[in-house]
Structure formats: structure tokens, C-alpha cells
Write the C-alpha cells for this entry.
Amino acid sequence: MFSKKQLFKKEGKEAKNKEGGKSSTRNKSSKNGTSDVSYLNNFIKYLLTFNKQHQEIKLQNPEVAGLPFRFNISPNIIESLSKKCKSILQKEPNLLKISAPVHVFGDIHGQFSDMIRFLEMTRLPPETKLLFLGDYVDRGNNSIEVVILLFALKIRFPNQVFMIRGNHECANLNDNYGFREECAERYKGEGDSIWSMINDTLHHLPLCALINEQIFCTHGGISPSLNSLEEINNIQRGTTIPDEGVLCDLTWADPKKQSKNWADNDRGVSFTFSEKALDEFIKKHNIQLVCRAHQVVDNGYRFFDENKLVTVFSAPNYCGEVGNNGSVMLVNEELECSFIVMKPVRKMRKRFTSLSTLPQE
Ligand SMILES: [Mn+2]
């Protein structure tokens, strides 16, 4: 077995100088090791030290403060975790049935540092159950860490960690919004094969979840083409997301106050749905609430249509500049919803640099 230090090399000048030539050494035994409980426990624990390690590096090398901080996770480990996780996901139905209490996460988008701060508050299994609503990759600097931690958690706690698919868990999209580029930057010639390998697992993610038969969770929204929730289980997985149809709407649609039940979405994909369309969906499927992610909301969560739908977004200060809060929703045993709200770490950038640039009112 590799020593811990060899397995989890840090990127950056200092780490490279210290460990230089050893990076090409690979140990086949680590492939089997990734299923092992104590290996996974250590690996997860290590990933969770990310913020602490970043802080230490910044103190030692103030000049790297503005650069992205990333762990050096070996291609062998990524391959092993991706394959193992895929085989677990494949056994799950498209529509997961989950019982409360559970913490529900919205979009993370490669913001690993914030994800860890949330996990410190929600705690990890076996203390709690976690449901992630998709959009793990793209935009942020650490899509690899986000995905690899999720895969490791799923393998370690398959009945307490649940992930569904967002519109960014699709090779067609994450080709263009940062994930492919991150893989290329970090893994050079192996970047594309790592990107494809991870996407192969992401394409097998379940699509929706139902908490206590009452809270319908999906990444984007509802679909005019969906006649029964059970129909979701008939959708073929393992492919890219089509341009239209139920899978497209579940991952892309948005709620909107509008007169038409369904209208064209400004994103150019899927629809927006009105309160009336939502009311009909809720009645028809005999549920209480739709919980979804997919849109930045100032407070980290936002209700729509008198508490019949809630948007949860877990990437505070989205893209490092939006200034929004992030939140995670806790659904307790009585199905009451409460929110852990996190403000951006860094204050929002000042919009106006001097009094002379303030807009006229
Ligand atoms: Mn989305």
C-alpha cells in the first residue's frame, strides 16, 4: 500500500519539490483498497482537511494565496472510486425513496471549500442522511474534489448518501463550463480519459428522490410530459441528457410567475412552469412539496407558490462574485423544513470603487 502521504500529494511548488520523481509510481494494490472501510474512512477524513491545509499553505506561502488550491488525487484512485460508485448507482432506481430526517444540498459547482463548511454543520453519516440535488461540477476550481468526496461517501454509506443528476452531470455541458478544462489542467495528457471516466459514472446518477412519499426532489423542475412519478423509473440512464422530454425537464426546468402554465425557458432548453402548473402537479401526484436546486437565490433558499416549491442552492458567493448566501435544507421526521444558511466567506466585491462612480438615483 502507498503511505498516506504518497496517496494524497498536494499540488503546488512545495509539494512537487519534495516529492518530485515519485509521482509516476503507481501501486496496483490501491485499486482494491478503495472498497475497504478503513481506507475509505481515512480517505474521506483526509479530503475533509482541505480547508485546514489550504490555510496552512497560505500562511507559509502568501504568494500562492490567489491560486486555486487542489489535492493531487491519483488517476488510479479516481478510476477505482468512479467504477465502484457506478456499480452502486446502477442498482438504484431512477426515483429514490428516502425517509426523513435528511439534509438536502443544492448546487455545489466545484466549490469544495464551501461544501466542507456545510458538512461540518450537517455532520456526516452515520449521524445523518445526505441528499445532493446535482450540479457538482463546473464553474468552481475543485470539481474533482467534490465528485471524488461524493463517490467515496456513496461507497462508504450507500444507504445514507444519495445523489441525483443535475444538468451539469452531462458530458455535453461540462465540456464547456469548466470541468473538462480542470481535468486537463490537473492531469495533462490523462485529463480527457479522467473526464470521460467520471462522466460515465455521473451519467448513471438517479434522477429524482421522494422523501417520505411527500417531498419530490429533482434538480430543475417538473415536466408537462410526466403522467406518473413511477414513469420516471422507465427513463434510460447512462446517456447524455436529451434536448427535450422528461429527463431534460427534470434537470433543466425553472418555476416562474407567468400566465401560461408552460412557457419557453430563457436558458433555451426546457420550460418555465407557473404556479398553476405546479399546483396541478402537486395534486395529481399527491405530494406536499417540490424541492429543487438549479437557480442562484440570494438567501440560499427561496419558496415559490406559497411554500409548494423550494429552491435550495448550496454554493455561496457563486462563481466568486454573485454575493449570494448558500443553504442546506434539513427535513426532520415531522417533515418540517429548516435551513442552514451560510454567508460568503469573502465579502462581496464592492460594486463601486469611489463615490464618483455611484449611480444617480
Ligand atoms: Mn443546474
Summary: The longest strand covers residues 326-331. The chain has one domain: 73-346.
